[in-house]
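subagent[fold] <- orchestrator: predict structure for attached chain, return tokens only, no commentary.
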Amino acid sequence: MRSRPIGFLLATLAGAVLALGGTSAASASPSTAPASTASGDVGTADACYTWGGTLREGSSGEAVRQLQIRVAGYPGTGNQIAIDGAFGPATRAAVTRFQSAYGLAADGIAGPATFNKIYQLQDNDCTPVNFTYAELNRCNSDWSGGKVSAATARANALVTMWKLQAMRHAMGDRPITVNGGFRSVSCNSAVGGAANSRHMYGHAADLGAGSQGFCGLAQAARNHGFTEILGPGYPGHNDHTHVAGGSGRFWSAPSCGI
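subagent[fold] -> orchestrator:
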């Protein structure tokens, strides 16, 4: 596991100084300073993204969209939440599941305790601490050449990583091996990928067995926002488990009871 984000560590130090009645550079910096809102709540400064006030059903905007990315792996079995910046019932339910998974008060309202847990789980580039962009792209360095823009492919991969982080935690925080993710059209063709592969959209990841086994991964993926799951028993998938987001749903891993 990678070290905690620098921003989180600075925020922790800042809190200790403030508790003694002092000030710190971390609390004064405009790039990492906590943001206040009309509700009076203040979030801990973080190097990736800092939330300010409490978010709840009815909230909207970029702060909600950023939250949705982090709780994308908690939509409930067979579901997927929209990353649309609108805090509706599905987002509330996902936040509640996230809170429950980490032993927080599970009320579906995202406040300082929820955000502080997210800060612990993410690195400075906003990826979850146990996954990297490099793992999700073994094709090229700039995410170009797929079925969507490079920025969209990279953004989709970020959501995929947060789903994998949720799945990893649910499976006892044992490492998950990622063998590949995004593919350009040419990379997809070179490996014999399907013409409509979700790899070309940045949604997909191919997983190695690890300690969980291919079937264990396929079965767990059903609970963490993956609308496409292919594993043992499906043609060409006896040596890995494929998971992906995106529209529709297609699950097939016959040897695993899926």
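orchestrator: received. Logging for downstream: The CA atoms of residues 78 and 222 lie 6 Å apart. The mean pLDDT is 87.
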